[in-house]
Design brief:
With 158 residues, the protein is α+β, with helices and mostly antiparallel strands. It has 3 helices and 7 strands, in the order E-H-H-E-E-E-E-E-E-H. Helix 1 packs antiparallel against helix 2.
């Protein structure tokens, strides 16, 4: 019963493709500019090459990360690859307000204990006691998951 999946969040196909394509084009453009500068400053060219390579790496990482699914069970919030994002009993509060520091189409969780940093670009991130879920995800799916988590928090506080 503890391992039954209550709801899932998947990356939206068009948003996923748009994000990866934009990052890929930016990386390719930076490399193109670096290689196309005639007699430019060598340090500037190296910077553009390195930064372009990093952006291409980020595009690849985003493509792989957004291929996973976020799953909510009664015990934990996790990725389909087995990575535990947060245990439900550690979630102190949930913030999904308009002015909250949260990913696009997503929500912010505050945990009772610190957790190691982790980042799945376009899907979720975790810094110490804060977890942001969202990005290239569907707004309806993240809203449904946020409501279930809010109900779980309220039920635990009773």
């Amino acid at each position: 019963m503890q391992d039954e999946i209550l709801t899932t969040i998947r990356a939206s196909g068009p948003r996923r493709a748009f994000g990866v394509v934009v990052l890929g084009l930016l990386g390719a453009f930076l490399i193109y500019v670096a290689l196309g500068l005639p007699g430019g400053d060598l340090r500037w060219q190296v910077f553009l090459l390195v930064f372009g390579g990093l952006v291409l790496w980020l595009a690849h990482r985003m493509w792989r990360a957004t291929g996973t699914v976020i799953e909510l069970t009664e015990a934990e919030l996790r990725c389909s690859d087995g990575t535990v994002i947060a245990r439900v009993d550690q979630i102190r509060s949930l913030d999904r307000g308009t002015f909250a520091f949260k990913p696009s189409n997503g929500f912010m969780l505050r945990l009772s204990d610190k957790a190691p940093r982790a980042w799945y670009p376009g899907l979720w991130w975790r810094l110490s006691r804060r977890v942001g879920v969202g990005g290239v995800t569907s707004a309806a799916q993240t809203k449904a998951m946020a409501e279930i988590i809010a109900a779980m928090i309220a039920q635990r506080q009773e």
